[in-house]
Design a protein that fits this description.
By secondary structure, this protein is of the alpha+beta class. 48% of the residues lie in helices and 6% in strands.
């Protein structure tokens, strides 16, 4: 999984396993940056102090070389701000649904046992499996210790990735996997459910009883490990993740936020019903309302299990896609409300322009970096509320067009001041 605050915030981009190669010759080793060689010596000393043997170190050493492509991917900025519908439609499609249903039938005994042991339903587990690696088909082609060494030597997040590298060496020392087949994403996420090494050490399970925690080639180990993680993160067995809903025409859009939680009875009193128009269930549970594509798009009530899903990956779109895929695997229909929403994507430059124009109007959207986080969305809500617009906080091209009409294009001199 991905870094600790969000186990899956780093994407899976693959290259061939040919990166592994044979152990480099002495001459090849001499071409390495002397600073990297000295730094690696410190890692060796620390690994030895943790009980990593010389045999394990030497088995992993040939792959611990800087990988330029990893640094390129780490520095790459997204070109577009993805819309919810584009994101969902690419990931929850007929092929993934059909394959997932077949795998649920194939592994039904295993999934039932895992559900009994950890309280996580089969649909949710298979949905995570499908979203992460297309059910184990695309687990990554980078040598994990090489990718982690590359990122650990880079100054930006050296402490985090050095710790992950040492955890990866501990996994090799425990003989759960051999170094030459310890492959993963460019950021070190591993196996069929893409655990980071630290997550593996805390939550990986030997479900098939062969003595190895093998999330690379054993679906039993991978799925049980994912369930163990979700259980420990607080998954409630008796509760679903959420559901699509229908809103009243006069709904107060400012209530659509993860940090606003109300009992289902309170949401029902505000005019929310199920997507088919039937009443909300009469359950003693609290929920939040999400509008992933603004007030013209779909709406979802999400429960505490959704918060657990966000610990796996902090992306709301990702968690909604997992939840909806799980529902589809269990036979639910496709989403249909909100399909007429404006589905044009913002470029990064347009996202920056939204932030710049909000700042010109006195709404603090944070640094104009094109990253539309909570501060920018709060500024959008404040601007919308001040101008009698639906205050959904959603960054979109229609919003940019409204801002362009309200304030002239920031000058180059003004932009330098931000």
């Amino acid at each position: 999984m991905r870094p600790s605050l969000s186990l899956h915030t780093l994407s899976i981009l693959l290259i061939g396993a040919s990166l592994l190669g044979a152990k480099p010759s002495v001459a090849a080793q001499e071409t390495l940056d002397p600073g990297f060689v000295a730094w690696l010596g410190g890692v060796h000393d620390e690994a030895r102090s943790r009980g990593v043997s010389e045999r394990t170190w030497q088995a992993a050493r040939s792959a611990m070389r800087p990988i330029e492509r990893v640094l390129d991917l780490d520095a790459k900025q997204p070109e577009f701000v993805e819309t919810f519908w584009n994101y969902l439609d690419r990931r929850v499609n007929g092929q993934r649904i059909n394959e997932g249903r077949k795998l649920m039938q194939k592994h039904h005994a295993l999934l039932d046992k895992i559900a009994h042991d950890y309280g996580v339903p089969p649909g949710i587990l298979v949905a995570f499996w499908g979203m992460e690696t297309h059910y184990g088909k695309f687990t990554g082609g980078y040598p994990v210790v090489g990718a982690l060494a590359t990122l650990a030597y880079d100054a930006r997040r050296s402490r985090f990735f050095r710790a992950e590298l040492l955890d990866a060496l501990d996994i090799l020392q425990a003989d759960h996997i051999k170094a030459d087949v310890m492959l993963g994403s460019w950021a070190g996420a591993m196996g069929q459910v893409q655990f980071m090494p630290s997550t593996f050490r805390r939550y990986a399970v030997d479900a098939d009883g062969d003595g190895h925690k093998d999330i690379w080639s054993s679906p039993a180990d991978a799925l049980a490990s994912a369930a163990h993680y979700l259980h420990e993160a607080g998954w409630q067995a008796e509760q679903t993740w959420g559901e699509p809903v229908r809103l009243s025409a006069d709904f107060d859009w400012q209530l659509a936020r993860l940090d606003v939680k109300k009992p289902l009875s309170a949401w029902a009193a505000l005019g929310i019903s199920r997507s088919d128009g039937s009443p909300l269930p009469q359950l003693d549970e609290t929920a939040s309302l999400l509008l992933p594509q603004g007030h013209t798009g779909p709406a979802f009530l999400v429960y505490s299990n959704f918060d657990v899903m966000l610990t796996w990956n902090r992306s709301v779109n990702y968690a909604l896609a997992v939840g909806h895929l799980a529902d589809r695997l269990e036979g639910a229909p496709a989403l249909y409300l909100g399909r007429d929403a404006d589905n044009r994507r913002l470029t990064r430059e347009q996202a920056m322009e939204i932030q710049q124009r909000l700042a010109q109007l006195g709404f603090n959207a944070g640094e104009p970096d094109g990253v539309l986080g909570s501060k920018t969305r709060a500024a959008i809500r404040a601007y919308q509320a001040a101008n009698n617009l639906p205050a959904d906080g959603y960054p979109s091209l229609p919003l940019l067009e409204q801002l362009q009409a309200a304030v002239p294009r920031p000058s180059k001199t003004a932009l330098l001041l931000f």
